[in-house]
Amino acid sequence: MPRSAPRRRLLPILALGATATLLPGLTALPASAAPRQGTGSGHAARFTHQTPDWQRCGADTPARFRCATIKVPLDHRDPAGATIDLAISRIRAGDAGKRRGVLLSNPGGPGGPGLDLPLHLSEHMPASVKDRYDLIGFDPRGVGRSAPVNCGLTEAERQWPRPYKPFGDSVRWAKTVADKCRARAGDRLPHMTTRNTARDMDVLRAVLGEKKISYFGVSYGTALGATYTQLFPGRADRFVLDSAVDPKRMWRKMIQVWASEAEPAFARWSRWTAERSATYHLGKTPDEVATAFWRLVERADRDPIVVGTEKLTGADIRVLLRREFFTVRSAAELVVLLKDAAAGKPVPGFPSTPESSDNLLSSLWTVLCGDAPSPRDPETYRRDSVRDAARYPLFGDFASNITPCAFWDRPVEPLTRIDNKVGTLILQNEWDSQTPLSTARGMHRALKGSRLVTVDEGEGHGVAYGMAAGPADRCAQDTATTYLVTGRLPAKDVTCRATPGAGRPQPASPAFG
Predict the structure, then answer these.
(1) Looking at residue 43, what is its pLDDT?
(2) DSSP 247
(3) Are 374 and 138 in contact (CB under 8 A)?
(4) CA distance linking residue 202 with residue 347, whole number of Å
(5) Are 142 and 192 in contact (CB under 8 A)?
(6) What is the 3-state secondary structure (H, E, C) of 34-91?
(7) Rounded distance between C-alpha atoms, residue 108 and residue 12, angstroms
(8) Residues of the chain below pLDDT 70
(9) 52 has which bridge partners?
(10) Which DSSP string do the residues of 398-431 spell out, in sequence order?
(11) Residue 311 forms beta bridges with which residues?
């Protein structure tokens, strides 16, 4: 696949939101072994009886933000075996008299570091929540400061998603990534799973001396939270899942849904843009607007379009716009820019964005491939890509293409089946590129005690507490706050009207966020 620079921007990882940065100057801190009482944990005492040695996270972070490291089993089925470090963080509740417990959090991914998430949430959560909970963050196993998996992937090998043509190149890429990960971290790969991360959360619960935990998880973090409710239903207190994965689609079908759901998003964008033809000049009817876009794709396939220092092929444009079409104004502006660039007019270059790290992509594949088995025969992927390129022309060939999971060792445990009645609150924008409304409804069906808050015409990935790219939807966030403060779920599902200005596009992050 020809190299093009906006690749860093194109990577549509599930959802890191605005928080995916490691703390500068953070160092690993030891945990001592003083006993903790009254946790009701079934984990080995060597893990639950740790007392974290809380230290200031860094010289440039607030003194109230503390970090530590605890030990967890590499393989929870063998607690007497090898251990790994889990980096954790905490901001204590603001009012000891109102304190209810701890609120763990995860920003998405898989591959998203969560150590600094309490700092981010403390800036966006109201005092009524912060007074009641210690805000707890952690880097999931394999990520950041928690036994990070680094496969030694080159920049080219970190490029994903990829179109299926030429398919032989895709097969070689997928096998290379799998082989490198196996060579670098083969003994750890089987255990870097969502199921084991949920078990780590329960060790952390016990270490903190809590009988239950509350939780706020975004995108991939909703799968992690749901897994915890399934494994430890009696220890789940108040769980808020923002922008939800469908547990029955984990994981290949979650990627494929990006293609099927991009088509109605594209149709909506075409209608919206046609209604504003005087502004964007892309066409007066939806068909004219759609044709203008596809002509750009065809032109770029013949002769790449130059934007700044970058040359974009038609495949580049499709993967770049797939996510943008869910935020109509942003997509219209970007298509106009590409149209002007194709005509030789001066246009601004793409903003500089951080390059995706080896750990980000390595941990992404480690979780996606370690959680659930994928087809082994490359022909399955070639056939599906050809079929879906015709069914979903915007993104079908990308979404069904082969991945390293085709060459990964088989998972050592089955994927956790989510089917319980634990009370949870699910927040979901109607137009979400990474976890579409259909997948949130799938989570709602699996969690039979849940309530679903849908933001009608809400755009973008992430809804509440600073996880949206634009302003939070006030109705949805207030519903979440009421639940976290009082424990009362809405009597029935809720539909909110989108907050004007919310849902602006956000930078690309790991797969689901």
Answers:
(1) 72
(2) G
(3) no
(4) 51
(5) yes
(6) CCCCCCCCCCCHHHHCCEECCEECCCCCCCCCEEEEEEEECCCCCCCCCEEEEEEEEE
(7) 12
(8) 1-42, 352-353, 500-510, 513
(9) 31
(10) HHTS--GGGGSPPPSSPPPPP-B---EEEEEEEE
(11) 306
Residues 357, 112: Cα–Cα separation, whole Å: 11
- Residues 190-213 have pLDDT tens digits of 999 999 999 999 999 999 999 999
- Those residues with Cβ within 8 angstroms of residue 193's Cβ, 6 or more apart along the chain or in another chain: 367, 370, 371, 411, 413
Q: How many angstroms separate the CA atoms of 309 and 164, rounded?
A: 26
- How far is C-alpha 366 from the geometric centre of its chain's CA atoms? 14
Q: What 3-state class would DSSP assign to 136?
A: strand
* Residues that are catalytic: 219, 432, 461
Tokens of 75: 């393989």
State how far the Cα of 388 lies from the Cα of 385, in Å rounded to an integer. 5
pTM of the model: 0.90
Q: What is the bridge-based pairing of β-strands 133-138 and 101-106? A: parallel
Map residue 32 onto helix, strand or coil: strand
Interatomic CA distance for residues 90 and 248, integer angstroms: 33
Length of the chain (residues) = 513
How do residues 55-101 score in pLDDT, each as one tens digit?
Answer: 999 999 999 999 999 999 999 999 999 999 999 999 999 999 999 99
Name, in order, each residue with C-beta under 8 angstroms of 101's C-beta and a sequence gap of 6 or more: 132, 133, 134, 210, 212, 213, 214, 237
pLDDT at 42: 62
